[in-house]
Amino acid sequence: MDGIADMGGTPGWGPVRPPRRDEPVFEEPWQGRAFALASLSGRIAFGGVNLDAFRHALERLDRAAYLDDGYYGRWLGGAELMLADSAVLAPGAIGARARNLRGEDVEEPPIPEPAVPDYAPSAEGSLRPVDRAPAFAVGERVRTKAMSVPGHTRLPGYARGHTGTVEVVQPAFVLPDTNAHFRGENPQYVYSVRFDSRELWGADAEPFAVTADLFENYLEATS
Amino acid sequence: MTPTDGGPGEAPPVALRTEALEQLLTERGLIDPKVMNEIITTYETNVGPLNGAKVVARAWTDPEYRRRLLQDGTAAIEELGFSGSQGEHIVVVENTATTHHVVVCTLCSCYPWPVLGLPPSWYKDPAYRARVVKEPRTVLSEMGLELDDDVRITVHDSTSEVRWLVLPERPAGTEHLSEEQLVPLVTREVMVGVAKVAAP
C-alpha cells in the first residue's frame, strides 16, 4: 500500500539518530503494555496470529498517528484498529474509557455484535512448503512489477519497475497481499533480489547494492 | 477510524489509551494481565542482543560453527537455543575487509528478535528507514562508521519474513581471547551493520 509506512527513499527526515548505549527495551511502562496488547490483539480480533493483517492496520493509520505516537503508540493504534474492524470494540470505546480514567464522566458505548473475519491459519508462523519448483533461479535477471496495489503488499515503492538479479532463493512463505485481507495464504517462494544503486536511484547514486526479499508474484522474467 | 475517534476534544495521550484498552479487554476476560506481564518480562530480560553476541563469538572461535551459520543461519542459531517469533528463517551474512552488509526494514521495522531482541530506536526511526537504502555510505558516516571507498556495501531490506543478521569481522588483537571474553565486544549495532567491533 502506498502511504506513510513505505518509507524507503523518501526525503525530508533529517539526520539519523545515533545509537544510545544501554537504551532500555521500553522507555516508559506504557510501551511495554502496548507491545503486549498488540501482540495479543490478533487472537482477540480474529482468533489467530496474522502479522500481515497487523502490518496492514499499521499502514492504515494516518500520518500523524503513525509518526507522532512513536513506535509503540503505532502498535497500540494498529491493535485498536484491528479490534474495531472485528467489532470487538465499539467506535469511541477507548476514547470514552480514557476520559473516564482521567476523571471525566462520559457515557461509554455498548459492546457491539462482533464481526470477526473467517480466519484459520494452516500452521504456526509463515513458512509453508509448496510442491512446485521456484520460477526463478539464482543469477537470473528479473524485473519487479510496476504495480501499485490498494491493499497490503510487501513490494516497496522504490523497488517497483526495476531490474535486478536473484541472489538467493529463499523458502516459500504465506503471501502477505492476500493473507492480510483474510483471502488465503497462497504461499510463494521469496527471492532475495540484488539491485544496483544506479538502477534504483539514477546515475549519480552512491555505488552500492540493495537486496529486497520479494515474493514470486512481484517478479517477472526479463526478455 | 479508530475506537478513539468520536469523542469531543483532543485524543487522549497514548499512555492513557493503553491503560483504557487494557482495562476494557481485561474486564471482558479477553486478556490476562499475567500473560501480558510474561510477554513484557521476556523481552526485557531474556531476549536481547546478548543472544546474538553469543552466536557471533561462537562463529569467531569455531570455524565449523561459522560454516554452518553462514550456510543455514536458522539451524545454527537454534543449536545455541535461540528461536521463536521473528526468527523463523534467519540468514547470516559476513562482513569482511572489502564487503559490508547493513540491514533495514523500509516498510516497518522487521528485525531478528530471537538474536537481537526488540529493535532500538535508531532502527525504527524514519530517517534510518528512508535513507539507508538510498545513501548508505552517508548514513553510516553520520552514525560514526567511515568505510573506505573500495568497500562494497550491500543493504538488505527485510521486505518479507526473512531476517538478516550480520556476522561482523573479528577485530585484530583478539586472538588470545576466549569465546566468553569475546561476547561483550559484540554490540547490536555491529550485528545490524552500522558499526564495527571495537578492539578491547
TrEMBL record, chain A:
Region of interest (Disordered), ranges: 1-24, 105-126
A Pfam family that the UniProt record links to this protein: NHase_beta_C
Gene3D superfamilies in alphabetical order: 2.30.30.50, Nitrile hydratase, beta subunit
Record EC number: 4.2.1.84
Reactions this protein catalyses: an aliphatic primary amide = an aliphatic nitrile + H2O
Domain of life per record: Bacteria
InterPro entries named in the record: CN_hydtase_beta-like_N, CN_hydtase_beta_C, CN_hydtase_beta_dom_C, Elect_transpt_acc-like_dom_sf, Nitrile_hydratase_bsu
Positions of the Nitrile hydratase beta subunit domain: 128-220
Assigned keywords, A-Z: Lyase
Residues covered by the Nitrile hydratase beta subunit-like N-terminal domain: 1-107
Enzyme class: lyase
Known function: NHase catalyzes the hydration of various nitrile compounds to the corresponding amides.
Protein family according to the UniProt entry: Belongs to the nitrile hydratase subunit beta family.
Protein name: Nitrile hydratase subunit beta
Organism: Streptomyces yatensis
Lineage per the UniProt record: Bacteria, Bacillati, Actinomycetota, Actinomycetes, Kitasatosporales
TrEMBL record, chain B:
Domain Nitrile hydratase alpha/Thiocyanate hydrolase gamma: 14-195
Enzyme class at the top of the EC tree: lyase
SUPFAM superfamilies: Nitrile hydratase alpha chain
EC number in record: 4.2.1.84
Catalyses which reaction(s): an aliphatic primary amide = an aliphatic nitrile + H2O
Family to which the UniProt record says this protein belongs: Belongs to the nitrile hydratase subunit alpha family.
The name this protein goes by in its record: nitrile hydratase
Provenance organism: Streptomyces yatensis
Lineage of the organism: Bacteria, Bacillati, Actinomycetota, Actinomycetes, Kitasatosporales
